[in-house]
Amino acid sequence: MATDLRLIEAGFPCHQVGAETQRERGASSALPPLYFLHVWWARRPLTPSRTAILASLLPFTSGRRGPWEIYIPKGRLTNKADEAVANPARDGSAARATREYERLMGEIFAECRRVLKDDGLMTIMFTHKSQDAWKALTRSLIENGWVITSSLPVESEFSASLHQKDKAAAESSIFLTCRKRPAGERAPATWKGYGGTGVAQRVREAVREALKEFEPLGLNPVDEMVAGYGRALRVLSENWPVLEGDEPVSPRQAMTEASAVVAEYQIARLTQGRLAVADLSPEAAVALILYGIYGLREFPFDEALNLSRSLNVSLVDRSGGYALTDRTAGMAPEVAGRHGREVRTRRKSGEDQGYYAPIVRRGSKLRLARPEERNRKRLEQPQTEWDVLQGLILAHREGDLPVARAYLQQHAGGKEQLILDLLAVWADRAEEALRKEAQALLFGLKLK
Predict the structure, then answer these.
(1) What are the residues whose beta carbons fall under 8 Å from the beta carbon of 252, sequence distance 6 or more?
(2) Quick one: 230 and 104 in the same domain?
(3) Residue 162's domain spans which residues?
């Protein structure tokens, strides 16, 4: 492995580049923004693209500073019809688009390996939060002889931009630097060894270290998860091939390990260290992490599925009443009301109304049910800490503090402080009206 570290691999100024990218995106001009001219396999802002190229060339010890400029000849744009993107419209179906995307990525990285010098460096700018996209990217890199040597997040999107508004979207791009894997056979590494010696443990340690490293950047929860993917896949590629038993370990397994570490980190941060995953029932843990990341907004089913897998929890469809089984979290199909919101499970008169499950599904989108949308019977006989939280909020609405306090005493089961910690998280992440309501309830319950 080459020892001549480049600036992109160590010492890259993520924060400064992110700030400059924001300035570029916010610049007012009568002309189209410069980043519209930049077309590679996908279109990216020029500032981080330029700096990635320059930092891939400069040695880490250089210390050179100055304006970074690049000239793009007019008309030298990529043929968009042949871009390496998953395009169902072009390829006929989602499955075919995925296969074509993986094929194109493989061809690209094989060609990059052919033309690059043995001591050369390849830098990829990747802005995607889907595990499927990361899996395709990593598999294409590994299978074509590349090792990921660094993974860095740089802020490149406005959180208030139109295509991200009201969405839990990645605001950062991930820079992956890669070098050629040395030729020759290598003995397979073990995924889970005795005494914490396996690659899985190294993945978890690398992600924990990365989360501490990224704290000054103020990444949002989605970006933390994506940045964790990068570090996990770096470890996987460095140790490739990796086997679990006789089967090769997939990039998805490494990302699942990363997700588990990030989930634990986010619960600890959401509750200021007062709660851990193990303190909550599986369904409540899933609901809390989803709320911490997405609030009450919609989010893709695949992302919730990946997160639940990282906690060893299965998402299951529950349209009516149900008893919780080990390691499951319920989802109920959405029944649309006015504007698709203010939803209730509406049946014939006399039957139950409201969602028993805390998660609501609409096609490929999920969201958390609001307290007023939940089934009353479920909240009167709560099965999880999340049920108690939402039942407490409804009790306060109906009878103010005395009723809320009585509900808490009846249903908390000795976990009063845990429920108050959840209420504090609810208040911190809620929209303004719900936040004020929760803050008043929290203040009143603490006054005994």
Answers:
(1) 131, 135
(2) yes
(3) 14-270
Q: What is the pLDDT of residues 146-196, one digit of tens each?
A: 999 999 888 765 444 434 444 444 567 889 999 999 888 788 999 998 777
pLDDT digits (tens, 9 = 90+) for 299-343: 989 888 888 888 889 999 998 889 887 889 999 999 865 334 444
What does each C-alpha distance from 362 to 161, 276, 343, 366, 369 come to in angstroms?
25, 30, 11, 6, 12
Question: CA 173, 175, 181 angle in degrees (round to 5)?
Answer: 150
User: 107 and 27 in one domain?
Assistant: yes
Q: Are residues 360 and 389 in the same domain?
A: yes
CA distance 6 to 165: 36
Q: Cα separation of 92 and 407, whole Å?
A: 55
Would 80 be classed as within a structural domain? yes
In a domain? residue 4: no
Phi-psi region of 29 (alpha: psi -120 to 50; beta: other; left: phi over 0): beta
Torsion of CA 352, 354, 357, 363, to 10 degrees: 120
The encoded tokens of residue 145 equal 């002889």
pTM: 0.70
**pLDDT at residue number 173:** 84
